[in-house]
């Protein structure tokens, strides 16, 4: 590819500085993914994890970078003790330098983005890769079930640079409001649905952990009693929602992270909707309350996918037996499952 004197693609010359920065960032990510030694190096890193002292050193360096406003993100002073805004100190997949992100001030997502400027980036890269693979179709979508503040969708779309629609489903009113704020300047179309998916239409109680606002579920047992808060939310039958709201899409990529409700929700999706699902990342949480019948229904649909893995790069393929054994182990452990057709 021909480059200008400053290293940029000449085709970007008429774009705004903000768009050019995002394009450069996407190009760096794509280049890293295409590096032939990258998968081997990552497998080496997994086999030989970082020593504790190295991790602590990295944390200190991140804290220094954040304080100097050269990395991570800084908090905007506010009287609101629950929802705050962070400003990115440099460009990340979440946005260019100076982008504001609204989120709850907790000890998990807030702290992670403050220090690193990103959230669950491997999931976003996986989703972005699959969205790019669907460019030949006219009407496609990214479906984000349990969208939280919309960070994973925002990162995926910034990396992918595709024109697909985004459907974000989030029952928490505070989180849904944050999604609308965080995506207000996005260069893609999106819809926010403020309810939880389930097996009926009605109302339910959503339980949240105060120190980890990403841990919100209609399953009360997943939230520690000492940190539990709750709110009444709307509930929508997943089968009806997919048939009525999502039937017009030719293909879609799905992300499901609902803190233990994923088997129930996905078991409600029709076979025709599964047929349109090109790829997915699904949180598999082995809670004691998981219904084996829901898992069995989901596992039958996985036969249509050529690559199924616990690894976002799909280097190590797993079968339905292993997935089922883990999902029904009642271990209370969780893993992300990655699917590609």
Structural notes for this entry:
The protein has 341 residues and is an alpha/beta fold. The chain folds into two domains: 48-118, no CATH class; 121-340, Rossmann fold (3-Layer(aba) Sandwich), CATH 3.40.50. The chain is built from twelve helices and 14 strands. It has helices at residues 17-34, 38-47, 52-67, 109-116, 121-133, 151-160, 173-182, 238-245, 262-267, 271-276, 292-301, 320-327, and strands spanning 73-76, 83-88, 100-104, 140-145, 165-169, 190-193, 196-198, 202-209, 212-217, 228-237, 251-256, 277-285, 307-309, 334-340. The strands form three sheets. It has a seven-stranded mixed sheet with strand order 6-5-4-11-12-14-13. Strands 7-10-8-9 form a four-stranded mixed sheet. Strands 1-2-3 form a three-stranded antiparallel sheet. Residues 1-15 and 30-38 have low confidence and may be disordered.
Rounded Rg: 20 Å
What structural category arises from helix and sheet content? alpha/beta
- What is the fold-level CATH name, i.e. the topology of the largest domain? Rossmann fold
Average of the residue pLDDT scores: 89
Helical content class: 25-40%
CATH architecture of the largest domain: 3-Layer(aba) Sandwich
Briefly, what CATH class of the largest domain?
Alpha Beta
Q: How much strand?
A: 15-25%
**First-last Cα distance:** 31 Å
Largest sheet: 7 strands, mixed
């Amino acid at each position: 590819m021909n480059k200008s004197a400053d290293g940029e693609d000449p085709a970007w010359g008429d774009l705004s500085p903000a768009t050019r920065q995002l394009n450069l960032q996407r190009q760096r990510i794509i280049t890293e993914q295409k590096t032939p030694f990258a998968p081997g190096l990552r497998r080496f890193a997994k086999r030989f994890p970082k020593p504790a002292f190295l991790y602590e050193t990295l944390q200190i360096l991140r804290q220094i970078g954040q304080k100097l406003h050269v990395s991570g993100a800084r908090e905007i002073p506010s009287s609101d003790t629950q929802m705050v805004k962070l400003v990115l100190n440099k460009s990340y997949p979440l946005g260019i330098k100076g982008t504001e992100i609204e989120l709850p001030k907790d000890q998990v997502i807030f702290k992670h983005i403050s220090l690193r400027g990103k959230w669950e980036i491997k999931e976003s890269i996986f989703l972005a890769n699959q969205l790019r693979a669907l460019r030949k179709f006219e009407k496609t979508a990214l479906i984000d079930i349990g969208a939280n503040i919309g960070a994973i969708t925002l990162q995926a779309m910034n990396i992918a640079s595709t024109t697909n629609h985004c459907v974000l489903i989030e029952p928490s009113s505070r989180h849904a409001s944050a999604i609308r704020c965080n995506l207000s300047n996005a260069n893609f179309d999106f819809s926010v649905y403020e309810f939880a998916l389930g097996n009926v239409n009605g109302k339910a109680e959503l339980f949240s952990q105060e120190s980890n606002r990403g841990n919100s579920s209609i399953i009360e047992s997943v939230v520690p009693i000492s940190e539990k808060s709750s709110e009444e939310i709307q509930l929508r039958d997943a089968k009806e929602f997919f048939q009525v709201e999502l039937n017009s899409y030719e293909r879609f990529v799905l992300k499901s992270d609902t803190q233990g409700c994923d088997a129930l929700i996905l078991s409600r999706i029709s076979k025709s909707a599964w047929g349109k699902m090109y790829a997915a990342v699904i949180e598999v949480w082995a809670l004691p309350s998981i219904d084996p019948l829901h898992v069995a229904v989901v596992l039958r649909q996985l036969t249509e996918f050529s690559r199924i893995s616990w690894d976002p790069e799909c280097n190590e393929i797993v079968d339905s037996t292993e997935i089922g054994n883990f999902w029904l182990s009642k271990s209370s452990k969780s893993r992300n499952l990655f699917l590609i057709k």
